[in-house]
Amino acid sequence: MERPTPLLPFRDRADAARQLAQALDACRGQHPLVLAIPRGAVPMGRILADALQGDLDVVLVRKLGAPGNPEFAVGAIDERGTVWLAPHAARSGADPAYVERESARQLALIRERRARYRGGAPSLDAAGRIAIVVDDGLATGATMAAALRAVRAQGPARLICAVPVAAPESLAGVGHLADEVVCLAQPPDFYAVGAYYLHFPSIDDDMVAALLARPLRAVPADEPAQARAVRVPTDGVVLEGDLRVPAQPRGLVLFAHGSGSSRHSPRNRSVAEVLNAAGIATLLLDLLTPGEDRDRAMRFDIPLLTARLGAALAWARAEPTLRALPLGLFGASTGAAAALATAATHVAAVAAVVSRGGRPDLASAQALAAVRAPTLLIVGAADVEVLALNRQALARLQAPAELVVVPGATHLFEEPGTLAAVARQAAAWFGRWFAA
Fold first, then answer.
1. Which residues, 6 or more positions from 388, have their beta carbon under 8 angstroms from its beta carbon?
2. Is the full-model pTM beyond 0.85?
3. What letter does residue 197 receive in the DSSP assignment?
4. Which residues pair with 401 in a beta bridge?
5. Which parts of 49-201 are beta strand (E)?
6. Smallest Cα–Cα separation from 281: which of 250, 305, 306, 304?
7. Within this chain, do residues 182 and 235 fall inside the same structural domain, yes or no?
8. Which of 144, 243, 276, 393 has a CA that sits 20 to 30 A from residue 39's CA?
9. Structurally, how many domains does the chain consist of?
10. Are residues 233 and 373 in the same domain?
11. Which are the contacts of 172, defined by CB distance < 8 A and separation ≥ 6?
12. pLDDT (tens digit per residue) in 343-374
């Protein structure tokens, strides 16, 4: 698509990001994943993610410098360890032994940056999503090319390269790596990226970490989420729940709480808020009445909890505003066992499952083997016993499944930043499989 060339130079990165957001407005409401190339593009990525109602992360790639000339790139490596070599690599003296050493050194730097920026939390997955890779400008294009290849390997639904300004030949060189290229200006006599900004300050690691840690922006006021209390009849009792449906929801997630918890759980409500901001409806439901919850044995009655969750699923399927939505289950602790057992008995209805600090071992081995919904198990690294149980469950699951270990987290994810990592992973997982 041809776009008018803006007046150069841009005032600053924020000015350039706002203009990029206008050019990318078609992505708004589709919950794109904005992947910024550190460090300069991260402030721009924050503005884009907020404007387009998406997520923000960084895409970490490092160039492999030539022997004796580290500024001359002979290839690149991403944080998954994938290496790309330029055709001239061997001619530059980069033999296999050198490439192996240099790759290991750069990968260590990438992992150090990931730990510094995200506190060790894993990167957000671009699979099945619109992924927008953004930089503040393209000079040689080598870093952008490596970033696009890295993101393409994750299987995004659509891959977009977005830059405010670029050297025409460099832009042409990366065009074939993306499904769409959005560039506001291509000066014919390109000099340097900073020359096209009036204000172009350096960005430090602390600023990057702060921008990435900022929570998702709330749903805009002109598109309020609809919240209401609901009552689900089952087994001669009525279950109380809180339903929240954002404008143009992408799916619905039913929450199964852990032992001794309820729909008022601050942890699950925190996760639900992030899902709502990502355009996903949520139903937080008490699977036991207040009287039943006082009986500790009933808290561990997985068949009963499974039946109640199945009743909630049937209720949602009967609701006119919800029946067409892809449906997911989020289970915590004992609720995770109920979620997995429900997915096993309602194979056609459940699109995805997420377990937070779950006890999948409380579901039968037969139930785990029968689950067909893609399942994400999230466990704290310090929750040693539960982590071992989840690893055993992962081996029994026949569906697409992953285990994410959150560094420093205990069972309740009370440590700073750990619950936010759970929420980001859950939103990305449901978004990926709802789109599929």
1. none
2. no
3. B
4. 375
5. 55-58, 61-66, 69-78, 83-85, 130-134, 158-165, 180-185
6. 250
7. no
8. 276
9. 2
10. yes
11. none
12. 999 999 999 999 999 999 999 999 999 999 99
